[in-house]
Amino acid sequence: MAPKPPRWIVLALALTLGGMNDLHASTPPAATASDDPYLWLEGIDGARPLDWVRQHNAVTVGKYADTPAFKRLDARLLEVLDSDARIPFVSKLGDHYYNFWRDQAHPKGLWRRATLAEYRKAEPEWETVLDLDALAAAEKENWVWHGAQCLRPDYRRCLLSLSRGGADADVVREFDLIDKAFVKDGFALPEAKTQVAWIDHDHLYVGTDFGPGSMTESSYPRIAKVWTRGTPLAAAKTVYEGKPDDMAISAWRDQTPGFERDFVHRALAFYDSETYLLGQDGKLARIDVPNDAETGVEREWLLIEPRSDWTVGGRTYKSGSLLAANFDAYMAGERALTVLFEPTTTTALDGYSWTRHHLILNVMDNVVNRIEVLTPQPGAWQREPLGGAPALSSIEAGGIDADESDDYFLTVSGFLQPATLYYGALGKGEPEAIKHSPSFFDASRFEVSQHFATSKDGTRVPYFEIAPKGLKLDGANPTLQYGYGGFEISLQPSYSGSMGRAWLERGGVYVIANIRGGGEYGPRWHQAALKAKRLRAYEDFAAVSQDLIARKITSPGHLAAMGGSNGGLLMGNMLTHYPQLYGALVSQVALLDMKRYTHLSAGASWIAEYGDPDKPAEWDWIKTFSPYQNVEPGKHYPPVLFTTSTRDDRVGPVHARKMAAKMMAQGFDASFYENIEGGHGAAADNRQAAFMSALAYTYLWEHVK
Questions:
Q1: Is 680 a catalytic residue?
Q2: What is the pLDDT of residue 504?
């Protein structure tokens, strides 16, 4: 299946909010120490800022992480992450199924493979392809695995992306799957935010840092080139050149046998892009869809997902629909579209996946999944359901090899239900359960329910509650509320052994708030909290908190909240707008200084989400949700912990540093911890991840027990 660049951008930026450490910050002339006394903390690798980081790390560790109870929790969470009983999820490349695996013996990880027959066994014998721990030791680099792209159809040569310490910026190196070794004098790219794709054995599409002016203001590739094996990168030929204020440029080849096509994608802004078919003559033909629509091409089919209502060919199609057309006919000017999915007030498309002859749709109805299988045919495509899932759980299905078969994997999981992996073939009976994740806590003690709170403007906001059975409604239950609310990302039922051990086992209640800004009800749910409407997301989260209090599940002194990235910005706004509702907050890898965010790392990438603070009219409303500007001396704020990572080259550590420093100087109970490694996930391996989780949970229990 042809890649969908908007999804690439979502994965690279949305949870993320991008940036590069080596870019540090671009300081506009108006920004001075008199305006912002903590501007000096923006020097990410500076000696003085890092001394400040180490000083406050030591304080936080001494207060919360230097106890026997913390060490026990840390060990128990690491046990979850390192468990050999976890499902080794795989992807098919040629005749083998590949998995990347971390455990206690391999903290950096193994890239390994097995045949299907071997994989189906309870304890497969894996063949190691690359030992990342051995590589890191040999090269004296803290390599973090960022994936592989392998050349179809023989899947012998791959492009491996390796990150130093977990940053988004990668080193790309060519690897041979038969020799299980890096290719001598093969393709290699130095560390950068690179976009690379195979054309054939001797050619790549590449967008990278070619030198000054070759990256966008968002720190992503501005130029796509063709690079020929054996020639210097400087000799690569330009295919497409974007503008400095574009977000990212990429190019790739769809290598589906018999349907080989080349594409160029121009991302102008987060929800504004253009995709072109690149002809053999080098000419570009735009896929004529709205700029906010996503497209995907598979064999003869073009699929279109409009994010706003779209009138074409005398008919209007709803935002959030999925439409199909014959690709060649569409490019020739025909506009015969078949509706494959149309949203309702409660449903949204969560994704789709192709098999050789069918299209699998993953649909959410009030944030709960169901699967449909569509078969192309003239007129309305044939449609039938695929299995089901227990109440309030998640079910996800995806094709394994759309070039060759109708085989698929199906995963079922829930808050109290560890994942089960099924293997099946469409049209050949029920799928077979082949893998089961272990239980890490006694789920029989708890129950899951879904509720709806009413937000300030009357909007009905769903939330999930996981609580001990027979919960006493006395307002005294320690409750942890989690949220995100941005970039059309949905929070759905999923199993977390770490959350179960760290929170539920101690008698806590766990809540997931499906607030606006997310994708739980498709584009409309996201767009309801964009830019000037951003406060709607925070009102929704507060409404869930107020509903929990009204139902006597908890009370402010026992209610904690936590979120990361865009969810960390959410926490900053709950801190400044609704401090009376919470006993403690944890803000992880957060965006917090909305006045300067476009001048920090890749901030220009997110203007479509938040707005441009350099425009006075937009700053008038951005400032209403900028925590760094809104924290004020003399007010009451609950205790708050800010966590981040020096190697986070998406959001970066700057926001958390400055926010913590400002609150500490004003006498508030603010704590800070910055992992020196880890990227935007704040951890480069399982041990670091366990520590960061244990720190957050320990902090919250200290304040809301």
A1: yes
A2: 98
